[in-house]
Write a structure and sequence with these properties.
The protein is an all-alpha fold. The chain contains 10 helices and no strands.
Length: 195
């Protein structure tokens, strides 16, 4: 099933993203397909979500904040770090620009930065694909996460490893951490941290 006109989407993304962010989006789309194949998820849907996940990334923070405040319900903690504004705003842009109405795709875009409790396997796959795509992500980071996919509960183990890295990075850079991020990390650690 085609969820979007791929050629039009690629053209729009090429015009609205930096070259690196465009390459990253292509990488996430391809990696999302690999994860979908591996974990028995919809490959076309995964490609679409991966391709569009950062569609709002290069918009100015003020514009992202206006989109969020005018059109969405968000928790206050989601607004403490401008680096995550593009995720909820991206779900809105995907809906308005690409006429995306698949709720699972929109949700995976919406939560690909901070995550949420009880994420679906599809949402987890997009989250992880964003962290391990090989076009722009550091090899040492990929090599820390990717082997977790081979373990029992591989998608969850990879997600947990992503959160470890994200939280450490935020602390190292002296940035605020959304409470939701801590909640997801704690949930994953409780369920899968013993493996």
């Amino acid at each position: 099933m085609d969820y979007i006109d791929k050629d039009k989407a690629l053209k729009w993304l090429k015009e609205h993203l930096s070259e690196e962010r465009y390459e990253h989006s292509l990488g996430v789309a391809d990696t999302a397909v690999e994860l979908a194949e591996r974990f028995n998820l919809d490959k076309d849907k995964a490609y679409t979500a991966g391709l569009l996940h950062d569609c709002a990334k290069c918009m100015p923070n003020e514009e992202l904040l206006k989109i969020i405040k005018d059109n969405m319900q968000v928790e206050e903690c989601e607004l403490i770090n401008p680096k995550t504004f593009h995720a909820p705003a991206g779900a809105y842009v995907a809906k308005k620009v690409f006429h995306m109405n698949d709720e699972e795709i929109l949700s995976s875009i919406r939560w690909h930065t901070i995550g949420k409790l009880n994420m679906t396997d599809f949402e987890k796959a997009i989250f992880v694909a964003d962290k391990i795509e090989p076009r722009t992500r550091p090899v040492e980071y990929i090599n820390r996460i990717k082997p977790k996919l081979d373990l029992p509960h591989g998608l969850d183990m990879a997600l947990l490893e992503c959160y470890k890295g994200t939280i450490k990075s935020l602390v190292d850079r002296n940035l605020k951490i959304c409470v939701s991020t801590i909640d997801v990390y704690n949930e994953a650690l409780s369920k899968y941290g013993k493996d």
